[in-house]
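Hi C.,

You asked whether I'd gotten around to modeling the 224-residue construct. I have! Everything is below, sequence then structure, no commentary in between.
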Amino acid sequence: MRVRAFLFDFDGLILDTEFASRAGWERLYREHGHELPADLWATLVGTTHAPWDPMAHLEELVGEPLERETLNERRFAHELSLIEAEELRPGIAEYLAAARRHGLKRAIVSSSTRRWVDTHLERLEEATGWDTICTADGDPARAKPAPRLYLEALSAVDVGADEAVAFEDSPNGVLAAKAAGIFCVAVPNEVTRDLGLAEAGADLVLDSLADLPPEDLFSRLAED
């Protein structure tokens, strides 16, 4: 396999926003005397249009309508305070450097909004050097697990699916990459570690991207 492009998920892969997002909802649930259901929360990871609504569910548990806007503002502020303490996940910098060194295309493929991705890339000083950034921007038809974002990324960088490697952290992301025909390396975080990434179809599952240096991945793929 000849690699010409690295396609990176963003949330939970480049930057661990997943822990903060879950923590914000856990805090909100506990303030109201309940626990966030882990199995239902898992359906939201890596996409934007899961059928489960945590606020509606909390209202059902409480038995009355809640001040949604106020609670969401407070929850989101807590999440941001946690995210702003996060840096690039282990191994990401090395893979970005390897892409530059080998002249590979670099893309971000995310179910989030472009504004969200850009804001955090700027803080991390990684806003430049991307060949394309494909985001769902609230459109369910484009969000993972549908392959549309990955297909858009491949088209934008003019690379075939068999010449790209996708890096994902969630089952929804893995499903999207594989549906687009792309070799997928899954790198779970604390939130997604037990969500069945291999069962979702990941070609390779790593505890950390730092566990497999880029040159070793190239050698591994060259043997396939």
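If it helps when you're writing up: The two ends are 6 Å apart (CA to CA).

Thanks,
B.
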